[in-house]
Specification:
- This protein has 142 residues and is of the alpha+beta class.
- It has one domain: Alpha-D-Glucose-1,6-Bisphosphate, Chain A, domain 4, CATH 3.30.530.20.
- A seven-stranded antiparallel sheet has the order 1-7-6-5-4-3-2, covered by helices on one side.
- A hairpin with a 2-residue loop joins strand 3 and strand 4.
C-alpha cells in the first residue's frame, strides 16, 4: 500500500541557499537523522540523474539504498526516488517568502497494508522532525 505524506514550512534562508544545502550529500545526515552515511555514486556535483548511496538506521533495523535525483531545478525544486532499496520518493519545492523560503514537501512510501495506518503518522512526524533539524542546521551553517 502506498503512503503519502506532505509538509510545508518556512526557513530563514533564501531558496538558493536552502536548495544547495539540501542536495549536498555531505549535509544529508545533519538533518535526516536516520542516515548513517551518504556517499555519491555519480561523479561531479549533484544534478538530474545524480545518485547517492545511503545507509539508514531505525532502531535495530539497518539498510542501504541508492537514491537518484529525478528532478533538479536549482533554487526551485528537486525530487528523489529510491532506485535500489525499499520503494519511496520525495519532492521538495522552494519559493521566496520574505527574507526566507517557503518549502513544500510531498513523499510516497510503500508499506504493508496492515502497517499503513501506523506508518503514516510515524513518517509524517519523522519528516517534520527532519525539517526542524534542517532549519537548525541552516542557521548554524551561516
Amino acid at each position: 500500500m502506498t503512503i503519502r505524506i506532505t509538509d510545508a514550512f518556512v526557513l530563514g534562508r533564501p531558496p538558493e541557499a536552502v536548495f544547495a544545502f539540501m542536495v549536498d550529500p555531505a549535509n544529508l545526515a545533519t538533518w535526516q537523522t536516520v542516515k548513517t552515511f551518504a556517499t555519491p555514486v555519480t561523479d561531479g556535483p549533484p544534478r538530474l540523474g545524480y545518485r547517492v548511496r545511503e545507509g539508514n538506521r531505525v532502531g535495530p533495523r539497518r539498510w542501504e539504498q541508492t537514491v537518484e535525483f529525478t528532478e533538479f531545478e536549482p533554487g526551485r525544486a528537486f525530487a528523489v526516488r529510491v532506485v535500489e532499496g525499499p520503494p519511496s520518493g520525495g519532492r521538495w519545492t522552494f519559493a521566496p517568502e520574505g527574507a526566507g523560503t517557503r518549502v513544500a514537501f510531498a513523499a510516497e512510501f510503500d508499506a504493508p497494508r496492515l502497517m499503513a495506518g501506523v506508518m503514516r503518522p510515524l513518517m509524517r512526524r519523522q519528516f517534520r522532525r527532519y525539517h526542524r533539524k534542517l532549519d537548525r542546521a541552516l542557521t548554524a551553517a551561516r
